[in-house]
Amino acid sequence: MKYRFLGRTGLKVSELCLGTQTFGWGADEPTAHALADRFVAAGGNFFDTSNIYNQGQSETMLGAWLKRRGGRSQYVIATKVFFPAGAGPNDAGLSRKHIFDQIDASLRRLQTEYVDLYQMHCWDAATPLPETLRALDDLVRAGKVRYVGASNYTPSHLTRAIMLSEMHGWARFDCLQPEYSLLVRSTEWELLPLCRDEGIGVICWSPLAGGWLSGKYRRGQLPAADSRVGRADRWDDLPEQRETARTWRIIDALHAVAAARDKTPAQVALNWLLQQPGVTAPIMGVRTLAQLAENLGSAGWALTADDLATLDAASAIPLPSPYSFINRYTRQRGGADARR
Q: pLDDT of 142-188, one tens digit each?
């Protein structure tokens, strides 16, 4: 597995990140540890979790694995904070109190003295942004956090955060975790160009769009009621991932490219992301060793220009104004970001 710099930083992370949301849901502790072992054996060093995944079980299982493995410095551990971690009035959000409380809780569960990347799990409209950024800077200065990042921020939120950090000399966001896949490409309109311009790493959540791009679903075949796609309640807040003509067009193209390259649809979908300029790593979420082995097969090869053109055409989204106007009349810069 290859390694890439996380944005403008000197931190090198594996080109695939193991998401541990399944630890404690779908994967018990022995399975979770076997998944982590297999990932590291393949060259992976980058793990993503959150304080609220499965009521903290994800961090706890990952922490037990870290203690068993030893060599903490060899692994890059990313966790997150924002969503409710309790029933109290201050048990959610990005206030100084909640951030300080939750970093200590995460460190206890992870059995480590620091996390490499601490991410704001969602924009908090209720907390003044300077309060959040100053709290993060204090955690970096205290040695509890090495780098800070954001997830589910709009371009304006991210831009404002960068400006405030630079004005005050605070630790700056060096990573963004947006949703990005062949099904969800609006990230390309502003967020990816902003991250490339500012030297911010990008790690993509839901790279297989909640299972839609895994190869399990085909046009005219209803998904199983107990599958991730079949559970309509799970995706009520994600209409872009529901069944549409565009979805089936993408899936058809995915299967065609996969068959021509002797790969699986999931491998093709992940490899497409690996080849997008500015992307550091997709985050793989797996429950079994078989799923992990398949996803690991997305690295070590590259889609051809024709493959990329086929997938891009199938997944293209008509640009709204003013993006369509800008795209028509503005000279586009070419070339890939060498640091990713």
A: 999 999 999 999 999 999 999 999 999 999 999 999 999 999 999 99
Q: Pairing relation of β-strands 145-151 and 173-177?
A: parallel
Which residues are 203's β-sheet partners?
281
β-strands 12-14, 3-5: how paired?
Answer: antiparallel
pLDDT number for residue 336: 43
Q: Is-cis flag, bond preceding 322, omega within 30?
A: yes
To the nearest whole number, what is the mean pLDDT of the chain?
93
Q: What is the pTM of this model?
A: 0.93
53 is catalytic: yes
Catalytic residue among 3, 53, 75, 118: 53
How many Å apart are CA 174 and CA 62, to the nearest integer? Answer: 23
pLDDT digits (tens, 9 = 90+) for 236-269: 445 455 778 999 999 999 999 999 999 999 999 9
Q: How far apart are CA 200 and CA 46, in angstroms?
A: 17
CA distance 303 to 76: 28
> Domains of the chain (ranges plus CATH)?
3-329 (3.20.20.100)
Q: Where does the pLDDT of residue 217 fall: very low under 50, low under 70, confident under 90, or very high at 90 and above?
A: confident
